[in-house]
Predict the 3D structure of the following.
Amino acid sequence: MEILKFPNPNLFVNCKEVKVFGEELKTLLDAMWETMKSSNGIGLAANQVGLTYRMFVMEGLNGDRFNVINPKEISRSIVPANIREGCLSAPNEFLLRPDRAIWIEIQFQKEDGVVFQRVFKDLQAVCVQHEMEHLEGKSYMQSKTIPKAKRKHLAKKWGV
Ligand SMILES: [Zn+2]
């Protein structure tokens, strides 16, 4: 799959809920995982490869794989993560988002539709927050928590 870069319009789409679970979905998630791994990423949202559905793949701490479908936030820490984040759709643009929580609890479905609830911490927590923002069609570079001058520079550079 081709990873789309900012300002590709698919990256600004508020993605649709996944309602059909089955072999086709699994095949798409497998292809997303391979694409992410071959680009050395730890997370990839579906709209980054042009699929405007609410799902992403993510690598866990021990290299384990998460297929996260229709995620909903349950709760999050008030403590900031203080971890810089990058994006496969904006190569080499690493940013610190002061609003990222050090842990987040989400409810989501797996590829077979089964509902899970789980807490993610540290880098995975930041990744979950980053990918969920993708699914809303938002850019991680345009948060109000980033200084205005920096945001202006990023908007010009990436067209966000
Ligand atoms: Zn991203």
About this structure: The mean pLDDT is 97.
